Amino acid sequence: MPDPSPSSRAKLLDVAEQLFASRGYAAIGVSAVAGAAGLGKSSLFHHFPSKADLYATVLVRVVERIEGQVLPALVAIGDPAHTLDRVVAAIIDVLAEHPTSARLLLRSVFEDDDEDVIAASAASGVNERIAAILDKVSAVIEDGVAAGVFRPVSVPDLLQTVVGATVFHFASGDFGEALFRAPIFSAEAIARRKRELQILLQQGLAPAVRP
Amino acid sequence: MPDPSPSSRAKLLDVAEQLFASRGYAAIGVSAVAGAAGLGKSSLFHHFPSKADLYATVLVRVVERIEGQVLPALVAIGDPAHTLDRVVAAIIDVLAEHPTSARLLLRSVFEDDDEDVIAASAASGVNERIAAILDKVSAVIEDGVAAGVFRPVSVPDLLQTVVGATVFHFASGDFGEALFRAPIFSAEAIARRKRELQILLQQGLAPAVRP
DNA sequence: ACCTTACCCGACCGATCGGTCGGTCAGCAA
DNA sequence: TTGCTGACCGACCGATCGGTCGGGTAAGGT
After folding, report:
1. Which nucleotides of chain D have an atom under 7 angstroms from any protein CB?
2. In CATH, which of 1.10.10.60, 2.40.240.10, 1.10.238.10, 3.40.50.720 is domain A1-48?
3. CB A176 within 8 A of CB B113
4. What Å distances lie between residue B22 and A110, B35, B59, B204, CA to CA?
5. Percent of chain A whose pLDDT exceeds 90
6. Which amino acid residue lies closest to nucleotide D8, measuring CA to C1'?
């Protein structure tokens, strides 16, 4: 019991985020969510009009957290190489802060969901907000290529690689921990992940030295 | 209609792979699978003892396809840099060949599934077979570091990056296609993906030039 | 002709799904 | 006290879930 009275609605959002992240939308029933929040199923429908709406609200919360941490890193200060470093660090930080974020994002990306779910999440505009962030990251890479601090690359490919290397990593859960034989979300693991990815990108994107 | 009479059982596996990949285990009912295969629900249970067993069988088929293509690339011929190139190409080829593979893999990795599903897939040993492949990839990287053709890296981190950059990419579906504004599984897109990732890795892993 | 076997189906089972409904209860303003 | 309101719940709804059962049908062996 961490909080005395987290307003029930917030508690529902918390447990729903946790449950949806671990087992997916279809596998989690509304009574399971309500029960985990210490409420009856009917009380859940007092706070949210439908299961799909609850899920969409959870997604919006996650996207807002990401925006709050990644957008500040995207203001163009310093050369694109430093900006990219900051962005990668920000993405890793925000995904590491809430272990559920990466999984939820991953699911929302490649889950051809239930019809009312895609309707609800489309109405909340989460996809567009994610796309907006990625567009800005693309712009940073393009700037770097144009300025000659990065070698020419396929920007969408690099973006996919960065997203895969960050989101997938923190979404990998038991699989990742089995691979590392150590926790993924420890402070050292997070710092190492940041360092390894930044070095790989900086060195892998360096322009060819012209003799 | 590719095949005149694919033995019903194979047809069931095909449509189940497609459906499970697109919407996940919990979201797909057995009657939907059977119906898509042109059969009644009862007929599905004539071929498979349970839904979980059907899913596990689908997973095994996917893992076998991957083994068949990636393991040959892992025989140590040439230096580790070339081997890694071959492995990356093999992974991309096998994931691109069947658009369902990457999604199924991703789900099996981070889906804290239903209890009988984890039991069935544990009995089929798919996790161990995936782990065995990744262990061999790890060995290649370690050899490269030991031989000095790669700079020192955190091997699990690099492995996570490679898996994320390949599996996530081909599992991203509509999201990825929206990002590229072009199909992901076209021959050109696959070739480009291969090239971009190989260059990024080779250059990013090159040891520092000693003055 | 008979029996077996493989394959398939419709009807049905209990459980659970998302969601509704009527109503209880505490707090608060008048 | 009275009346109202937001939070909450138990009981219930039709639909669908995974799975069972008995029976039907065609092929093949003897």
Report:
1. 7-11, 16-22
2. 1.10.10.60
3. no
4. 8, 16, 14, 34
5. 83
6. A43
Which of B110, B162, B196 is best to mutate for the A interface (most A CBs within 10 A)? B110
Beta strands in chain A (DSSP E): none
User: Do residue B109 and residue A25 have CB atoms under 8 angstroms apart?
Assistant: no
Mean pLDDT of the region B51-66:
96
Classify domain B59-205 by CATH number. Answer: 1.10.357.10
pLDDT-based confidence at A4, cuts 50/70/90?
A: very low
pLDDT score of A114? 81
Residues of B in contact with A22 (CB under 8 A): 112
Amino acid A43 CA to nucleotide C23 C1' distance, rounded Å: 14
Pick from B98, B128, B71: which is nearest to B190 by CA? B98
Q: Is B20 helix (H, G, I), strand (E, B) or coil?
A: helix
State whether CATH 3.90.1150.150 applies to domain A54-205: no
8 Å CB contact of B168 and A169: no
The domain ranges of chain A are 1-48, 54-205
Contact B17, B100 (CB under 8 A): yes
Helix, strand or coil for residue B153?
coil
Residues 42-61 of B with CB under 8 A from A: none
